[in-house]
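All the exercises in this workshop are built on plain-text protein records. A record pairs a protein's sequence with a compact description of its fold. Read left to right, the backbone structure tokens trace the chain's path through space. Once this layout is familiar, the rest of the handout is easier to follow. Here is such a record, shown just as it appears in the course material:
>
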Amino acid sequence: MEEHCLLAVLIDADNAQPSVVDALLAEIAKYGTASVKRIYGDFTSTRLTQWKQALLRHSITPVQQFAYTTGKNATDSALIIDAMDLLYTARFDGFCLVSSDSDFTRLAQRLREQGKTVYGFGEKKTPDPFIQACDKFIYTELLRTQTAPQAPAAPKPNPPKKNKPAPAAAKASPAPAGEPPASEPTTAPQAETGNLAPPVELLRRAIDESSDERGWANLGAVGSYMTKVQPDFDPRLYGNRKLSDLLRSLERVFGLEERGPAGSPKAIYVRNL
């Protein structure tokens, strides 16, 4: 989607975390301009007090929805009604639905029936029907790893003072079994999505469906096909930032080639080996 496209961002506060808002809006900016940003929930509840700073920082409009009856989710109804009102203004090119709730499956379907692009954002627990109802679905666990703060650097030891003998080095105690020695740096935590095997066969099919008579396919066409067939496909699930990086990591399976005149952006083409 082009950058000038207008998007309506609708957040279900009961099924989203404020810790991912920064990365969430940055991700949405890849697809268009978030001209409407609304969040729905009962903000009189202490459960949602942590949202306050995030709303002020990003100018997100809170829509207060009281829980009229225990066990009934009035928030979902308010979000759906507003989505349909925004749809009939005919001002928006797409909608971003931020929730892990399958209750929005029919809403996503209805928006797509009207020719609108639907981007879903939710946790890995999101039911598959809602994922499949979206044009593109992004797991918020991936966004959470982008915003995780880095561990502070260890302070440098003070040098021993002059005219004073340095204290004898204490004998290092052996590290517990299964843990690295204290002197060795540990690796960064992996994404919460786990170690997933790349969908090689689906990638092969995407290349076949998008290739020319010589077997070469434009990388953009391959990515578009992957998203249509599997809306939650994301190279970051497999430890790679871009689709090209994922394919390069599988150099024995796929071949990549850059094309274009010198000094200008190159188009990437890929083929099955």
Notes: The chain has a mean pLDDT of 81.
